[in-house]
Amino acid sequence: MTAVTHYFKNVVDSVKTTLIGLGITGKYLLQKPITVQYPDERLPIPNRYRGIHYLEQEKCIDCLACARACPIDCIEMDAVRHGKELEWISFTLDYQKCMFCELCVYPCPKDCIHMGTEFAFVSYDRSEFVHDLLSYRGMARDAKVRMVEAEKKKKAKEEAKKAKEGAQAAVVAEAADDEGEEASSEDA
Amino acid sequence: MLTFDPAIGFSSAVLAVQSAESGLKDGFGTNAIQDFLVGVKPEYVPAWAVPLTAIGIAIGIVLAIVSVLAMFSTWLERKVSGHIQCRFGPMRVGWHGWLQPLADGVKLLLKEDMIPLGADRTLYVIAPALVLASLLGAMAAFPLTETFYFANFGLGIFMILALTSTTTIGVVMAGWSSNSKWSLYGAMREAAQVVAYEIPLGISLLVPIMVAGSFNLIEVSQGQGGGYGILNWNIWPWVNPFMLPAFVLFFVAILAETKRAPFDLPEAESELVAGFMTEYSGIRWSFFFMEEYAAMFLYCVVGSFFFFGGFESPVTSLAESVGGTNSLLHQLGAASTIVLKGFAGVFLMMWLRWTLPRVRIDQVMTMGYKYLTPLALVCVLGAGLWEAFIAPHLWWRS
Amino acid sequence: MSTTKTYEPSISRTEGRPLAGGEREYMIDVRTQDMEVNMGPQHPATHGVMRVLVRADGELITGAQPHLGYLHRCAEKIGESVEWLQYLPYTDRYDYLAAMNNNLGYSMAVEKLMGIEIPRRAMMLRTLCAELNRIGSHLIAIGTYGLDIGAFTPFLYMFREREWMMALFEKICGARLTYSYIRIGGVFNDAPPGWLSEVEAFCDTFEVKWREYYDLLIQNHIFVKRTADIGVITREMALDFGLTGPMLRGSAIDWDLRRDTPYELYDEICKDKAFEIPLASGEKGTLGDCWDRAWVRAMEMMESIKIVRWCLDKIEPGPVIGDIPKTLRIPPGEAYVGIENPRGELGHYVVSDGGKIAVRCRVRGPSFVNLAVLEELMPGALLADTIAIIGSTDIVVGETDR
Amino acid sequence: MNFQGIYDRIRSIQAPGVTGMDEPREPNPQDKKDKGRSGDPYVLVDPQRLPEFLECLRDDPSLKFELMADLTATDPSKEDGYLWINVQLLSLVRKHRLAVKCLLPKENAVMPSSVSVHRGAQWAERECSEMYGITFEGHPDPRNILLPEDWIGHPLRKDYEFPEEYHGISCK
C-alpha cells in the first residue's frame, strides 16, 4: 500500500467506523434504560440467594457442625442444656469475616440454618456486624414478609398491566376500524 | 485576507478591545446599560464611573450566562451519557435530576480547597481564574441576538479565537504549579495539542469567512438570510462545495481545542489520572470544568454562525414576519435559535465522546499536522477558486 | 552453559516506531532527562492495586518495573491450614472474574488425587458454567480494555450482558461473584427448573449484542490505531515467558488446553467439532500486538457460546454430585492440573499426605506469569501505550498477588 | 507421548541430572501403614543441574518442552530435611506435559537459576526464594516480589513463625 492510499484509507476508515459507532450508541440513546432505581425498585432475588443467615432456633441442637464447617470460624454458639431442653445464650455470626460460601448450611443435621435474601448492612460500628442470629430472626422474617408483599404487588401490577393491555388492544382495534372507515370514505 | 496568523489575530483582538467603545454599535448591550446608568446617575458620582459600572454589570451577566450554560451542559452530559449507556443518569434531585448541577455546585463550594505541598501557590491559585477569565472575555464577543450583545467587534471571530487560545496559558500554569508529574504531562499535552489545532481551526473558518466576506459574527449571520430560508445556509454544497469538508475539519479541530474526547488527552483519566486537574479540588476545579463546557458551547455557536445560518432559521423568520424586524418576538426567536444550535453542537460532541476511544498523543499531532492542516488548506484553495470563478455566475448567489 | 535469548524490542529508539503504512516515525531528535513516574498503586488503569514504576523520557517509556504484592492475601498459606473443602471459597477469590474456572481447577486437582468419577450431568453443568464465566470474564477484559483506551460506553454495554450472566449464576448458586458452585465431586446444586432455557435465551441475545461490541470497539479505527503494532509479543518471546491463553493465541500459537489436553467433556466437544480455537493473524498490524489479543478474546466469546449451546443440547437429567464423604481425606500424592482459564493456564498443584489438610496448595495464576512480559514490552512505547499493554495482558491483580 | 515414553526418551538422550522417577501406585495391602500414592508421575532431577536439564529437554526435537508452565517449591513437613522444587513443563508441539521434581536440602538451599533457559522462571523463582528461602544463583533480579523488601522469614516454610507485628501493625 502506498503512502497516499494509506493516507486516504485512514481518513475513510476513521469516518466510517465513527459513523457506525455513532449509529450503535444513537440507537441506545433512544431506547429505555435497563437499570432500575435501586431503593425504590428492586430486582427480584432468587430463592437460592446467599444472603444473611437465619436460624430456626427451635430445631437447632447446638451440634457445632456449621461452626466446624466454616472455613474462617466465624460462627460461635453458646447454649445450656437442661436435660432435653436447650437454653440458648447466643448464636453469633461475624459478618466482617463471613464470605457467604454456604458451607455451613450443608452439614446441618436438622436443616435449621439457612441463608436468607437480605444482603444490606449499614453500621457506624464494626461490632454491630457480629450478629446474634437468635435476635436476628425478626429481621429475616421481615425480609420474608417484604418478599411476599413484593410478590403480591408484582402480581397486582401484572394483572393491572394485562387489563390495561386488553383495554388498549380494544382501543387499537376500534382505531383500526375507524381508520379503515376513513380510508374507505376517502376512496369514495 | 487569505493569510492567517495567530499573532495578527491576537493583536487585532487587542486593538478591538482598546477601541471597544468606538466599536460598539447601537444595541441593548453595554450601551443600553450605560444609557440607563446615565439616566439614574446622582450628581455626586463622577462621569467616568458610569462606563466602568456598565462593564461590571455586563461581566456579571456574562458570568451568569456562562454558569447557567455550564450547569445545564453538565446535566445534559450526564443525561446523554446515561441514556447512551442504558442508564438513567441523575434522577434524584428535581425532575429527572435537573437540579443536580445546583447540588454539585453547592458541594464544590463547600469542598475543602487543597493546595498540594510543594506547589507554586501563586500560580496554582491564578491558573483556574485565568482559564475562566480568558473564556469569559471571549464570551463577550458572542451576540445573543442581532441587537443584543456586549461588544460587536469588526473582527469578532479573531477576538474569540485569540482569547480562547489563551486558556492554554492557564492550563500550562496549572499543570506546572501543581507539583505533580501527571499534571505536568497533561499541561504539556494541552500546549502541544492546542498549538497544533489552532491552525486547522483558523484555516477551515476561512472558507465561510470568504463566502460571507466578513469577520463579524452578526454580518456572517445576516449574509445567510434571504429568500431561500434554510437553503441559504453556508453548509449547503450549492453555496460552496468545500463548506461541508471545512465544517468537518472545523468540528474535529474544536473537539481538540476544547479537550473533548476523543482528544481529551490533557485529562485522559485512564492515563494521567486527571491530567492538569489532578491536584485541584472544590471551586477551583469547577472553574476548569465550567471553562470546558462554556468553551464547547462557544465554539459550537461559532460553528453555527459560520456554517449553519447563525440567527437564521424558520423560527426566526416566522417571528420576524409576525412581530416585525427587531421586535421582542424576533429577538426571542433569534436568541433561542442560536442557543438551540449551540446545544445541538454540544450534544453532538457529547455523543461522540461517549462513542469513541481516545487517540494517542502522537496520533493527535499526526492528525493535526498531517491530516487536518493540509486538508484545510485544500479546502481554502478550492473554496477560493470557487468563489473567484464559479460563484459570480451562480444566479442563486447573486 | 546455556543460551541467553534476546528479543528485538518492539519499537527501538534508533529505528523509530513502525507505522502501518510502512513509514517510520523517529523520536530521537529531542532527548530530555528521564523522569520516574509511579503508575499506581492507585491509578485508574492498573486494574486493581498494582504499581508500575515507569521511567519516561517525555512521553516515551525507557523502562518499566512492575511491583506486586499489594493484594497478597496468602492464598497458598491458607490452603495449608484449612480443610480440602473449606479451601473452595478461597479459590473464588484469586481470579475473582472467573471464579467458576478456579473452582473447577481446584476441584479437578483434588479429584485427580482421589481418583473418582463424577456424574455426567455434573460435568455438563461444570462445563456450561465455566464457559459462561469465560464469556463474563472476557466481557470484562475487553470492556475494561476499551475503558483504558478511553471508550467508556462499550464497557457498560458489556457489563449489561455480564449482569445477565451473573443473574443466571445467582439463580443456580446464589452468589454473583464468588460462586463456590463447582465442588469436589460434582456441583453444589442442580440447575433450578427453567434455568437452562434462560441460558439459551442469553446465548441468543448475546450473539446479537456481540456484533455490536465488535463494530463499536474492536473494529473502531481509533481503537485499532491505539492497539495495532503496540506491545508486540513474538512467538519466541511468548514461549520463553511461558505465556498461556489468549496471550499465546494472540501470537498465533495454536494451543488451547481444552483441545490439546482435554479435561471434563471437552474431549467429546472437540470430537463433535463444536468449537474452534481463534488464532490471531496480525490483520491490523504486526502479529502478536495488542489488537490481536483483544480480537482473540472477542472471538473466544463466540466459541464459548457454541460450547454452551452444545451442553444445552446434550444435557440429560441425573445426579449432580458423586458419593463424597463430609470430611474429605485425600490419599497421599501430588497432582498438577492445568485448565484453560480465561486468562491462560490456571494450574493447581496440590500435595496431600493423607490427612484432612493439604500439604501444599500451589496456584499457578496465569495473570502472574503473563504479567512478567511487561518489563520486556514497555521500553520504547509511549505513556499511553503502557495502558494499552497492561490492559491487553488482562491481569486480575487478585490472581497475580494471590 | 505418555509419561513412560517421555522418561525413556530422557534416559536415551542422557539428559543431565536425572536421578530417577516416581509413578503413582496402589496401596500395598500387606502393609497397613502404606497408603500408596496417587496423582502425577514425575522425574527426579538433581537441583544443581536443573537448568541444563531444562535446556536439554527444551532443545530435544522429540520432547520439545519449550514452555515452562510453573516452577514452585514445596515444604513437605517440618521434620523433612528436603524442600521439593516442582517444575511443570509443557510441549505445545508434541502436546504432552511433564512434572519434574528436585530435592533440595533445607540447610543449604542454593541452586542455579533457570532464567537463562526459560525467562518465565524469573518471577516464579523470585516467589520461591522469598517464600522458601531458596537462593537462586545467577538470578538477574533477586528481589522479593510479593512480600515487602524487609519481611523477615519465609512464610511458606512449615517451621515459619508468624510475626506479632509488622512496622507496628498487629498481624494477629
Notes on the structure:
The complex is a heterotetramer of chains A (188), B (398), C (402) and D (172). In chain A, strand 2 and strand 3 form a beta hairpin. Chain A is elongated, with a radius of gyration of 30 Å. Chain A has a 3-stranded antiparallel β-sheet. A two-stranded antiparallel sheet of chain A has the order 1-4. Chain A has 188 residues and is an alpha+beta fold. Chain B is globular, with a radius of gyration of 22 Å. Chain B is built from 15 helices and no strands. The relative contact order of chain B is 0.12. With 402 residues, chain C is an alpha+beta fold. Chain C has one domain: Cytochrome-c3 Hydrogenase, chain B. Chain C has 16 helices and 10 strands. In chain C, strands 3-4-5 form a 3-stranded antiparallel β-sheet. Chain C has a 3-stranded antiparallel β-sheet with strand order 8-9-10. Chain C has a two-stranded antiparallel sheet with strand order 1-2. In chain C, helix 4 packs antiparallel against helix 12. The longest helix of chain C is centred in the middle third of the chain and has 30 residues. The radius of gyration of chain C is 22 Å and the shape is globular. The N terminus of chain C is likely disordered. Chain D is an alpha/beta fold and 172 residues long. Chain D has one domain: Beta Polymerase, domain 2 (2-Layer Sandwich). Helix content of chain D is 19%, strand content 28%. Chain D has 3 helices and 10 strands; from the N terminus they run H-E-E-E-H-E-E-E-E-H-E-E-E. In chain D, strands 1-3-6-5-4 form a 5-stranded mixed β-sheet. A two-stranded parallel ribbon of chain D has the order 7-8. Chain D is globular. The model of chain D has no long low-confidence stretch (mean pLDDT 85). Chains C and D meet through helix 3, strand 8, strand 9, strand 10 and helix 13 of C and strand 2, helix 2, strand 4, strand 5 and helix 3 of D. Strand 8 of chain C pairs parallel with strand 2 of chain D, so a sheet runs across the interface.
